[in-house]
Amino acid sequence: MTARMLLAVAVVAAALFLPGVGAAPFVDPPEGVHAAIALDMLRSGDWITPRLDGIRYFDKPPLLYWLMAGAFRALGVSPWASRLTSALPAVGVAVVTAWTGLRLGGPRLGLLAGLVVAANLELFLFARLVKPDLLFTLCIAGAFAAFVEAYGAARRGAVAAFALSLGAAGLAKDFLGAAGPLAAVAVVFALTREREVMERWTPWRVLALIAAVAVPWYAAMEVVNRGFLYYTIVDNHILNIAQQRAFPDEDVPLSELEFLAVTAIGFLPWTLALPGAVWRAVRGPWDTAEGRVWLLFALWATGAIGLFALSPFKLPHYGLVAFPAMALLAARSWADAIEGEPGAPRFRWLALSALVVLVLLAAVAGLAWLGRLPLPGGALAAADVATRNLAARGQDAPFAAGAEIRPILGHAALIFALGAAGLAVAAALGRRAIALGALMAAMLAVLPLTVQGFALFAESRSVRPLADIVALRATPADVLAHEGPLERSASWLLALDRRVAIVDGRQSNLAIGATYPEAADLFWDAARLERAWRGPERVFLLSAVRPERSAVRGLPPASVHELAARGGRWLYSNRP
Questions:
Q1: Whether the predicted model's global pTM rises above the 0.90 cut
Q2: Going by C-beta distance under 8 Å and a sequence separation of 6 or more, which residues neighbour residue 110?
């Protein structure tokens, strides 16, 4: 039964996350940055220092790049190979969450938890983006799964697995962020006053194992790149929170309400079950191991979301790390409500709230399909970092036309309406499990529709058409330059075997890398561009800056030839 349940979750998650994962071109930013770094690592053979355009890149640890470089070697360089490093961890998150639910409440809870963590918009979309966040989330979910095993069964091997998972999290995205689960466990032990458990866990041994996994790379980076640890710990964390960075990038953080709204909407419809589930876990009783584990998940979910909301700097995806715990809490509410367990929320309230959400989603999608309801202008800016950064500079992000999006909205409205009807009828007849099944089926059916929307979004932001123009025309003697932070068009580098000069692009993730000697000749100002423009070589300038603000305004007008414009970028040359 256990193996079949986990296999079922794995099959559903794989069917949800893997089809069409490579159909869309790279989204710049953020995907091209990570893919270009992995390719640079593979080509150079330097597995210690990540580099973009040959410039040292310190913002993310190497695990994503190691895995992606391996995928490139085995499968070739493509969006499909790149996105496997997010899609497969997403499948892993669903399976690990299901296993944790199984250990806490049996196969039904495990099945439901695994499906809930997969059947929400935010995790689904990030499973199709090349970013380290789902790899990090999988490591954290694995650590908590190991904790459940160690705590309930008192298995020392599981304690080691807990520590090793947190060490891997430090290599996936954030060494300091991996300390969060340790803090949550410590709070639970303090609240429950379990000294025997603390002695059995021997914190020094846990810390030693975490360090054994993560510290060697961090130490090697500091040896090879003096100043790396200061940048990572002080500038990129402490000063970032205080918004006093010495090397700021161009990311514009969300407000508290925007972050909470994006997280709540991204986790719909399961968000509505969370307040009652958290209160139930915090209220106790904590006289069993199971009760204390539920307290841990409640503290982790609310603590992680709350701390990010209160932090001066937060981005839309920061809440993903709490999604497995949130899924377990929501699944527990639904599973116990179906069974009528004491202390569980009443099923009719859960069903009614879910019905309201489905009806509202059907109405919004339907009105947008009919052209009666324009989508909120700030919706994309709240959910997409690059769109938000462009808006802060007074520049609109390109996106697909309404006519292309409208059929997707019409199909979504139909699915939500059918799900609402199935939920209402089943709940009225007292078929609780079928009512929940209708809700789950609606979410699982509507998510693949967003693949079409994602493809349109990627096409609207893709640098590939302009990169192809350069690839067809440029010779080894030509000069290639990019205006603005290179992250905005980094997938351009995938088709090149040379460096690209960066014009007015120091406010970026490469700001620290620009301080090292080998990068001096790659960062240009407007005067350096003008000298190259007037020189004998042909220059191709790919600009992510609107023409009225671009450095091309300072060049001789007769020498500026606009070759093409697409995706919020302009391609110029000093030759016709």
A1: yes
A2: 5, 6, 9, 98, 99, 100, 101, 102, 103
